[in-house]
Amino acid sequence: MFYVRHGGSILAKSLLILIYCTLLAACQESSPQNPKSVSRITVAFTYQPESVLMHVAMAQGYFAEEGLEVEPQIHSFGKAALQSVVEGKADFATVAETPLMFSILRGEKVAVIANIVTSSSNHAIAARQDASISKLSDLKGKRVGFTPGTTSEFFLDSILTASGLMRSEIEPVALNPEEMQESLTLKKVDAVCTWNYPLIQIQRQLGSAVTVFYDRDIYTETFNIAVLQAFIEKKPETIKSFLRALLKAERFVAEQPDAAQTIMASATKVELGLIKSVWDDFSYELTLDQTLLITLEDETRWAMKNRLTDQVAMPNFQQSIHMDSLAAIKPAILTLYR
């Protein structure tokens, strides 16, 4: 009789232990320290083709799979997205290297954690033929729209130099990207230096009335993911989760480009045909290579020469390029030398 009661006590204790362990596991699963817990972030990115990996990762739920809850901020260009990070309104930004360069020169503590796109075919000058512009040297004395502090400005000076002109020989007109098409159509300017999608939209609207000047040898754009350096130090695992989600998006884009284009059209409300027309101008790859460092240094020399900055010494840009997180995720794609 004693044995039976003792056995019952053992059973009761076993059940209590099982219940306790189950509850403990559930608590640990939802604990903020658990890797599967949700981390909330704000990401400032653009509707441009350079942000394809972001839009795909959002649509396919890759961020959620990595334990990230993303609040999106959509901007018309990367300079504005980066400013949102600098002002503490976003945690991540997609941005080309020129706004990054200026930000670093101003002493803002931003860092690149990855490149997400490169392109040598995304910039051009579109000029009205009725302004008597049939070759680049005809830009002399003409009103040329550009977007200050962006790749538009750097490409403009580069292509002018290649054609034997200086900026002082044209009349530069500061415009936002969304103002380019209307300004050219209404003849407020004679030419514009811009990128896609505005570039293709201008060609579509004006057709043979515009001449478009490309130079694929003078400049390669890099589009990047930027964060504050303090964020990297505070949330290193969030950085890695973010990059893992983008790696999934990269594979999706490579394997299913048509589906990725459809996602972009749906997410950005940009016509699918427009997206397809520029798709092959970009390499959608998550990487960090020497191109970024070389371009940052080249653009700094340009900025100092043209007195676009008060800085007179070349900064150490490697201090603003965070390689460790990407190296931990996929070291084979890391080709930027320390």
Explain how this protein is built.
The chain is built from 14 helices and twelve strands. By secondary structure, it is of the alpha/beta class. It has two domains: 39-120 and 221-335, Periplasmic binding protein-like II (D-Maltodextrin-Binding Protein, domain 2, 3-Layer(aba) Sandwich), CATH 3.40.190.10; 123-213, 3-Layer(aba) Sandwich (D-Maltodextrin-Binding Protein, domain 2). The strands form three sheets. It has a five-stranded mixed β-sheet with strand order 2-1-3-10-4, with helices on both faces. Strands 7-6-8-5-9 form a five-stranded mixed β-sheet. Helix 6 (151-162) links the parallel strand 6 and strand 7 (171-174).
Write the layout of secondary structure elements.
Blueprint lengths: L1 H28 L9 E8 L5 H8 L2 H4 L2 E8 L2 H9 L5 E5 H9 L4 E10 L3 E6 L14 E4 L4 H12 L8 E4 L5 H6 L5 E5 L2 H9 L3 E4 L7 E8 H6 L1 H20 L1 H12 L3 H7 L9 E2 H16 L18 H6 L4 E2 L3
Parallel strand pairs: 1-2, 1-3, 6-7, 6-8, 11-12
Antiparallel strand pairs: 3-10, 4-10, 5-8, 5-9
Helix pairs in contact: 2-10, 2-11, 5-13, 10-11
